[in-house]
Amino acid sequence: MAIDRSPLFVHADAAALDPRDELAAGLLQPVAALAPKYFYDRLGSALFAAITELPEYYPTRTEAAIFERHLGDIAQALRLRLGAGLTLIDLGAGDSAKAARLFPALPLARYLAVDISEAFLQHSLQALQRRFPALEMVGLGLDFSQRLLLPAGLVRGPALVFYPGSSIGNFAPADALRLLREARELAAGGGLLIGVDLLKPEPVLQAAYDDALGVTAAFNLNVLRHVNRLLGSDFEVADWCHVARFDARASRVEMHLQARHDVAVCWPGGQRRFVAGERIHTENSYKWGVHEFEALLRDAGWRDLRCWTDPRDWFGVFLAFA
Length: 322
Description:
The protein is an alpha/beta fold. The chain folds into two domains: 19-49 and 201-286, no CATH class; 53-200 and 287-321, Rossmann fold, CATH 3.40.50. 35% of the residues lie in helices and 26% in strands. The protein has helices spanning 19-27, 42-51, 58-82, 97-102, 118-131, 173-187, 202-208, 215-231, 290-299, and strands at 8-11, 86-91, 108-115, 136-141, 159-163, 191-197, 240-247, 252-259, 263-267, 270-274, 279-286, 303-309, 315-321. Strands 1-4-3-2-5-6-13-12 form an eight-stranded mixed β-sheet, sandwiched between helices. The protein has a three-stranded antiparallel β-sheet with strand order 7-8-11. The chain has a two-stranded antiparallel sheet with strand order 9-10. Helix 2 (42-51) runs antiparallel to helix 8. It is globular, with a radius of gyration of 20 Å. The two termini are 35 Å apart.
């Protein structure tokens, strides 16, 4: 008989920099910048979910196809290496849809969903618990962009760190190495299952980050509304436009917000004037080769690496063990 549970929600200690200080510092850099974690208020999370449905945005459906084809092999490898009773740690869980597809195949005892957008996470996890009432679920509101450190007692038994959707691409290589090392410490002898967007033709990348419907543009512009709420600034969305470009030398797609005309932005204790054409850098999305990412995993201390890709080698799912 299934045990009826309600998800537990945990709020991590706020050891991170005050968002107001971080946002103001970013806006006052020589090249203004906003961290991509600020995309994800409730509307931003919903807009990103819409992006994953766009025909131009290949990562979500390509990754899903890899899991559909190879989930049996992945599950078998996990059972042989880690056994049953896994804690699945879902980093950047969002609506938890990707993790939910794995539940029937993996020997799970607990699902730990980690996301910066607490309101969106609570709504998603409550719906998910109704679908899987016997699985213990915990939601953790946490910004792990600077450090991946979970409150004590949340991880029980062997852990599988799950980081799908190529979100590792938001981190510069040195920061990605740091995060992967922290994930290995968190897994404590367990495993890592991670989705990685691979390098591909530039037109494909460009379309994925600048779709015809303008959903990605809305997602990018929505960060200004979020910043206004957090910082008390007076950004007007109509003053800005979305720009996406591929930097081949750095192997990354960049997203920016570009001033349509000269504009002054004010917030309590500060201000900045932007000239027409000046940009705010909002996101990097690094693209990797299979061998390059395997080398990064090894540098982070992961071993026994396995990788599954789609027929076009557009996306890779990597499994590794601590």
